[in-house]
Specification:
binds potassium ion; mainly alpha; 77% helix; homodimer; 275 residues; Helix Hairpins; disordered N terminus
Amino acid sequence: MRPSLRFPPQTTPSCKIQNCKTLAYIIGTFIYLIIGATIFDKLESSHEDVRRDHYDKNISLFQRQHNMSRGDFDRLTSIILKNHQYKKKQWQFIGSFYYSTVVLTLIGYGHATPTTSSGKAVTIAYALIGIPMSLIMFQSVGERLNSLITYCLKRLKRRFKKSEYVTDMELLTCEALLSVLTLLTGAYMFYLNEKWSYLSSLYYCLLTLTTIGFGDFVPLQQKNYNEYPYVYIFFTIGFILTGLTILASSSNLLVLKMVETDTNRIKTEQTIAHE
Amino acid sequence: MRPSLRFPPQTTPSCKIQNCKTLAYIIGTFIYLIIGATIFDKLESSHEDVRRDHYDKNISLFQRQHNMSRGDFDRLTSIILKNHQYKKKQWQFIGSFYYSTVVLTLIGYGHATPTTSSGKAVTIAYALIGIPMSLIMFQSVGERLNSLITYCLKRLKRRFKKSEYVTDMELLTCEALLSVLTLLTGAYMFYLNEKWSYLSSLYYCLLTLTTIGFGDFVPLQQKNYNEYPYVYIFFTIGFILTGLTILASSSNLLVLKMVETDTNRIKTEQTIAHE
Ligand SMILES: [K+]
Ligand SMILES: [K+]
């Protein structure tokens, strides 16, 4: 009976409703994408044109000053761009650890990417094995964090002589507060240490914790890793891991909520079937 | 009773087992990160040194040829790097749509990033609202895809006069095959159209479908969007959306499997409690 519950034949009414729902989600997401495209086009396009003009003028000036042909200049551009990543040692142990973290958490800044074929092949294998592992770890730690918060909330409630029962809503609120706290702490620390503007720093933290990870702002990139204090390196990697754990605990709670709803639904259906 | 099932008090044996499990996951993941760091350090470090030397030599040669001081050269480098993104129009409608897709799917190549403050602020808001929406869409479409595959498998089995029942294992196998097919089709198409090596193309596809998205290989970046055939633009965005849908359908199946296990566990526990 269970499989038919999950995958109803193509003609039942519940299946039609599900199809319509899915279609609505698809259309909704596409409309949202189109809205996004329109907004970003408006916001960034004009600025892009201004910067292009500025770029072209600067280049012509430089070519005249240094008596450089267009071909020379293009060669120079390609040297500078191709080799820019080598200005800083990316692959010492700390750098490689940072790289592995960025792969397993799915953030993928792209501040360091493998240049050798073997590096690429190993990255593929490393990711395929490691990603399920790290997802399980984050879910498991997130679940433990939920336990800990529930325990603390219970103690707190007992002290104030209220009911001992902790609702899911209270738990979610706590996690939301923790997320905001992590975000603001992170943003402030990177604002101080990386000399980014506060908006850029907040933008970096949000893009990291959502695991989008554009890589336009990446901490620890202004000098070699061994020139940074260890505390700051720990803070950077710790920020990523802590932030993602808190988000995992929220998602763990939401999945469990779904499980509960599903269980209740099945129970109700079984009760109805028995009557 | 349910909340204590989910968040057992800190002293029960089941809680200790859970803590130990979580600790084991954490240690396992950290060991895996250290192994990764060691391997990538070995693979990439020596190559990095060779490239650095090559870079330094090229630069000196250029400086001598064009009678350029170190200061001049650094200024030129910064102009070229800062403005490299303006060599191609990123923010027309198609580019902005591509950008929105890359944000909502959490891939975040970083091939185009907002340069204005308003662009950054809107990206933050856009992501926070849109990501839950697109996750729900992918899960919903994935669930429908599961239904469709089950339906097709049933028909196929009926034709060959076998049992009509479709197991989860058969469904997962089908999805694994579909994933591999999408991956290889994608890799081959990008190999042809972007002139990447086959390994690079496969590496790109894997990094995209895992949503890591380093951004070292990004399709549609060699000329302006309006110079590409529409079919290829559709294919690129379609590849991302299709691939992620197939992965979502596998994850939907695994979550449902977990729900089922959980339901059975609770049922068993209730039966024992009633006896
Ligand atoms: K990413
Ligand atoms: K990324």
